[in-house]
Write a structure and sequence with these properties.
heterotrimer, A alpha/beta (320), B alpha/beta (157), C alpha+beta (358), B: 157 residues, alpha/beta, Rossmann fold, 4-stranded parallel beta sheet, C: 358 residues, alpha+beta, 11 helices, 14 strands
Chain lengths: 320, 157, 358
Amino acid sequence: MASSLDELKTAIRKALPGLDVVIAWTAGPDALSHAPLFITEEADVARIEWDPRCSQNLAGYLPGLRGKKAGIVAKGCDVRSIVELLQEKLIDREDVVIFGLDCQGAVDARSARAALGSSRGVRDVAIDGASVCFSVNGEPRFFSPGEVLQSKCFGCAGADAGLCDHFAGERGLPPQFGNPPESTLERLEAMDMEERLRFWETQMSRCIRCYACRSACPLCVCQDHCAAQSREPHWVDQTDHPREKLMFQAIHALHTAGRCTECGECERACPMGLPVMTLKRALNRRIKDVFDYQAGIDPNQTPPLFEFREVETNIKEREW
Amino acid sequence: MSVTEGKELRIIGFLCNWCSYAGADTAGVGRFAQPTDLRIVRLPCTGRINPLFIVRAFMNGADGVLVSGCHPRDCHYSEGNFYARRRLETLKALLPVIGVDPGRFEYTWVSASEGQRWRSVVASFTEQVHALGSMPRFMSGTSLDLCLRPAVQPRVF
Amino acid sequence: MVMPTARYIAHDKLMPWLLGLAEGRRVLAPVREGGKTLFLPLREDSRLDLRGLADDSAKAALLPRCEPLLEFHYAKTAGVPSRTTLEVREILPGQETFLFGVRPCDARGFTVFDRVYDAGTRRDIYYCSRRDKTLVAAIACADPAETCFCNRVGGDPGGSDGADLLFTPVEGGFTVEAVTERGGAFLREQALEEADGKAEEAREVREAVRRAMPEGPSLDGAPDEVLRLFDDGAFWESVAAKCLSCGVCSYLCPTCYCFNMTDESNGNDGVRVRTWDNCMSFQFTLEGSGHNPRNGKAQRMRNRIGHKFSYYPKLHDGNLACVGCGRCIANCPASMDVRAIVIQARSRVLDKEEYANE
């Protein structure tokens, strides 16, 4: 990845004079996750980092920068969010320069911290085939991808090279990590209806209503005007009831139905470790089956809930 | 009718003004006997239905929700029910994940003249919901509530 | 009052002792739940986790996420359907609580609350009633995390400010020392063995951690610098660029005490609740007219930093509204670092001064 980083820096240096800002990653306060870096001067380019700790999807910053010429460094999954933003005309293609990268997988800082015991002494992270290696105080420590990577990496479709204006590293198929760890959706499917309700009741009682899931979501474009904080209409009340907090998750899932690219930002941002992407996954699976659609693939497609067919071939209506 | 014997359940019907609400009226004018569990909310069009109405209804204590509108191609606003069909099909994937049995929610089309059809839709849906019984409720609080009292439940009737 | 001597409790005796206490009162302690360590009511099957700083702060013990203040009911007048009378029932907190396992930073966070909620004539009865009924038992840190910086905001990893009892990890268990008179009275009633020589070991443990904490530039003494940057929009725009405007930092913060009050009602019944509020949210300063004096995240960030490092210390004898627990840093989805912002503010002011001098 070192060579990709050099290529990336060169490409950004070259493009920077024509851009107002380039968003990339740099070393953050925590050794297990890199932080966003807003580059406006060439001197900042030297601070760019690129390794599996670049987990945050930076696409969410783009709608806020509309009207400016913005460059963005993106993994394959991040590109899908950009495609979705383009589809919905929330950003303008001519104002965005995409620097694609050859991602080998992104670290889930929370699981990595649990696996390592602490983030102290972590200097470097590399993914080599079937194992993830953390260099801790000079000693390599190896983990399996299922232990320390984000779950989305298991279904990685690779970078959409077609949409990148620049690409650093080697184009090729993404790594295959084998079977993903059991998802919350699979666990839920083994339960009866009441157990599912109780599952969410327990989970949501941990929610502190910080709305980081929404704030981190690149497709939650209402942001400051979110239905969850509106008093009129009063979709959710302010009590600490798990029901109200689950209602908000339903709002988030339905507002991103047919749009969510499963970038995983909602779960990554949650300080309580709640499996909040589960509802979105369930909707996406249905949308794939019924409308044969996946979000963030083709910028010229229309999201399925923005259109209709008079005859829906995959919908089987009930006879009464 | 068997379904009206015993305890009534709470079933919410979201009906479009132009077809199904008139269809329900036709059933009433025709004096067709129907179960009385259903409470109707009249809306201009099924396209006006935010799927979250249905989620909120279940969270607030509904045992079943029925949506009914104009038949496809008959929408008063031309295409509201086409959008609704896609939204409601998508919603069907969400409900079971949060613990709402798929049988508690249905959508269908009933025209203004179909009083008889309305009667049979209501009867069979009510029967279906009764077979599932009342919807499990969220408990009023959990061990995690640090409040003196668990959050009050102002929304449940 | 003479404080009781230090006591000692072995690791294997701790849980039974806490469960014994839980019989007469609520015991809140850091326990594992859903992959997180959170302050929850202790039960027999709880997995106590005292390895480090808990994931949430313990502030909910004194300032719950949501607390009902009163209930109301509109009663129909018999015979006159148009007339209703309003019935209001006040709800006051009343539960005795033993709050175990907070760290010195969390306990010190309560002193930040005390200055606001228990300030002479302005006493918040809900807060004060909880504070009076809560005994705070802190554990001195043995292994501060990478994001810890209590020593840079006037705190101490072995400190006892805001606590009634101080536990210190020693070989085989903990020593227990009384900090306040209430803590002393409580400790005297407990059948715990004398610490004897272990008290000295505890002192050494605390001293060793104090020395081992990485040094860094102090973050107090910045109130004027932060205030002088009030109108420096470009500075706040740049530090807030990556902020997502969520509430992680405020809600995990042991010193953030802002709240919102709303009436949640249905039909004729309702409840007035007080809930945590978050200054990073657009709604925090949104006025009824639709005008918002803190329209952008830069202004909101300025308020957050200003409140903690300038406005609060100016009102409260230089005490910062930050205790250095580092939860906001460890949990920020955009990897913001409050320490870096204060340092940047200071150097920005210095740069400006140099420029002016030239």
